[in-house]
Amino acid sequence: MRNNFRLRGIMLTGCVGIVMMLAPYPAGAHHSFAIFDQARVVTTKAVVNKIEWTNPHAYIFFDAADEQGHPATLAIECGSISLLSRKGWKVNSLRAGDAVSITYHPLRSGKMGGMLVSVELPGGVVLRG
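^ that's the sequence the OP posted. Answer follows.
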């Protein structure tokens, strides 16, 4: 009988260990990039409006023209702050008012926005998304 309790204890400890190892798994979940048309690439001239260094992704807002030539705000999703820093970005790489050329994958919905591919700064430096 004593061995039976010991075996149950070992099995319970093993199950608890497995559950604890798997518990963080959902934290690795990530949203889909299906909202972006990654088969299309758009390049346009724009002026930096605002930069949000937020997690899980940074966002850059640009003043640009829509397809009819009307002024519009273009919201571009970037990678994570750590990913951008590994690619050479600094907090002051872009500033509000900078005139740049941006390349991005547009939203499938047709709204003004997309996922950053690259930004060409006024001096010709190119930062990748």
